[in-house]
């Protein structure tokens, strides 16, 4: 038994010792010209070296990257620079001159990773490792650090159920990036396409936006891999839908006692949310907000606030179709908590 246990310890040590990627490595953030980058493959630490995704960074710096599947070779060009490297090889070529890298280029999750230092050598960029923030900071070569003009005419509006963001197009710009946030002073994230920051020409549509949400946007221009400053911030709010149907709240008794109109229009005299109306007042006889009444008491049979009732108020349309039950009894099918009812109605246009 001791022998088996000893073998297990030795095997565990061998596996751990030769695991090339640090298990406790923190997420590494990449900045290019002080702009945060997001790729579908994060940097890793291997053999004490930081490996970064080649294509994403090279393209962000303005290089054109080509992949030769047969030769397992990557070729990148920018201005007067030509870079070649082969997967699994420590040897690279920059303008025909051979250079060696500490850790060979390798494919991880379908992406080519190379040592961080190689990025600087290959494209003449300045590369810094910030240990305190666990981040990589890359700056384009000084000869190319001429920021393009900040985008103008930035606009955000509603179009066909999405938020459309556009700006004035400049022929002297290579492409644009758009950043978004759910708060004006919050963190802005770039739109991602195929694992890298989306390269845009004229605009973008922000889909999957929910009704009532407000989103904020700012745009940058990129020329020769150098990104401009941010444009002015613009925003748009997705409106709630308008539903022409009318819902009523009624008691689940034989008389179907009318308890008011289920509408978020608080000016409607019959709205259950009009606190001055008969059906929205906490004193109204037919109000579910009257904690002493037949429809709001925690003890009443037909109350919305009775946790145990099986006959709470129900939502119906003009044809009598039941849309749900307004109740604190969460075990009932179609249960909508009274305190959540306004949001549910608003989201559905009532």
Description:
- This protein is mostly beta strands and 350 residues long.
- It is built from 4 helices and 28 strands.
- The N terminus is likely disordered.
- The strands form 7 sheets. Strands 5-6-7-8-9 form a 5-stranded antiparallel sheet, with helices on one face.
- The protein has 3 domains: 125 residues, Copper amine oxidase-like, N-terminal domain (Copper Amine Oxidase, Chain A, domain 1), CATH 3.30.457; 83 residues, Immunoglobulins (Immunoglobulin-like), CATH 2.60.40; 110 residues, no CATH class.
Give the N-to-C terminal Cα separation.
Answer: 72 Å
Total domains: 3
Question: Beta-strand percentage?
Answer: 25-35%
Helix content: 10-25%
CATH superfamily heading of the largest domain: Copper amine oxidase-like, N-terminal domain
If helices are DSSP runs of H or I spanning 4 or more residues, what is the number of helices? Answer: 4
- Shape descriptor: elongated
Helix-strand category: mainly beta
Mind describing the biggest β-sheet? 5 strands, antiparallel
What is the number of strand segments? Answer: 28
CATH domain class of the largest domain: Alpha Beta
- Largest beta sheet: strand ordering: 5-6-7-8-9
* Mean pLDDT level: 83
Second-tier CATH architecture of the largest domain: 2-Layer Sandwich
CATH fold-level name of the largest domain: Copper Amine Oxidase, Chain A, domain 1
User: Runs with pLDDT <50, length 5+?
Assistant: 1-24
Keywords: Signal
Organism: Alkalihalophilus marmarensis DSM 21297
Signal peptide: 1-23
Protein name: Copper amine oxidase-like N-terminal domain-containing protein
């Amino acid at each position: 038994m001791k022998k088996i246990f000893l073998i297990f310890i030795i095997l565990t040590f061998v596996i751990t010792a030769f695991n090339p990627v640090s298990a406790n490595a923190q997420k590494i953030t990449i900045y290019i010209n002080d702009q945060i980058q997001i790729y579908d493959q994060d940097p890793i630490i291997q053999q004490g070296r930081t490996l970064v995704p080649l294509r994403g960074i090279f393209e962000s710096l303005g290089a054109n990257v080509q992949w030769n599947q047969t030769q397992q070779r990557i070729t990148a060009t920018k201005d007067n620079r030509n870079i070649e490297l082969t997967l699994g090889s420590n040897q690279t070529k920059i303008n025909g001159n051979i250079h060696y890298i500490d850790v060979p280029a390798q494919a991880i999750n379908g992406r080519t990773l190379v040592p961080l230092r190689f990025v600087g050598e290959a494209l003449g960029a300045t590369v810094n490792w910030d240990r305190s923030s666990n981040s990589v900071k890359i700056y384009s070569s000084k000869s190319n650090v001429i920021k393009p003009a900040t985008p103008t005419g930035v606009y955000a509006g509603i179009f066909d159920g999405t938020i459309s963001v556009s700006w004035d197009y400049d022929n002297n710009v290579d492409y644009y990036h758009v950043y978004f946030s759910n708060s004006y002073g919050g963190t802005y994230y770039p739109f991602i396409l195929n694992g890298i920051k989306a390269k845009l020409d004229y605009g973008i549509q922000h889909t999957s936006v929910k009704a009532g949400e407000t989103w904020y946007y700012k745009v940058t221009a990129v020329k020769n891999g150098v990104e401009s400053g941010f444009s002015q911030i613009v925003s748009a709010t997705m409106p709630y839908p308008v539903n022409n149907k009318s819902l009523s709240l009624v008691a689940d008794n034989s008389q179907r006692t009318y308890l008011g109109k289920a509408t978020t229009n608080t000016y409607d005299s019959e709205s259950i949310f009009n606190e001055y109306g008969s059906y929205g007042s906490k004193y109204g006889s037919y109000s579910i907000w009257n904690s002493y009444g037949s429809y709001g008491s925690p003890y009443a049979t037909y109350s919305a606030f009775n946790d145990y009732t099986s006959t709470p108020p129900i939502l119906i349309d003009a044809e009598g179709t039941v849309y749900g039950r307004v109740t604190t009894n969460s075990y009932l099918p179609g249960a909508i908590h009274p305190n959540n009812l306004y949001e549910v109605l608003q989201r559905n246009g009532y």
